[in-house]
Q: What sequence folds into this?
């Protein structure tokens, strides 16, 4: 999982698609996984308030993109 577009990053992006933060967890980035998960889940849980639900959706999309573009040093 060292380069952008590698098979590991594709798997991580797919995992994040199904659950926000799971792709970061697959990549071993625990703090990023927790942040994405909490922000997206809390945003989705407050679906009756429009603004938090939009933030949850943006955080979910961002977690997918972040997992796909991750580069290990």
A:
């Amino acid at each position: 999982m060292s380069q952008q577009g590698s098979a590991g990053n594709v798997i991580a992006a797919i995992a994040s698609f199904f659950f926000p933060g799971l792709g970061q967890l697959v990549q071993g980035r625990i703090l990023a996984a927790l942040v994405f998960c909490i922000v997206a889940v809390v945003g989705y849980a407050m679906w009756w308030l429009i603004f938090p639900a939009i933030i949850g959706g943006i955080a979910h999309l961002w977690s997918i993109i972040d997992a796909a573009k991750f580069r290990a040093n």
The helical segments are 7-18, 22-26, 30-45, 50-69. The longest helix spans residues 50-69.
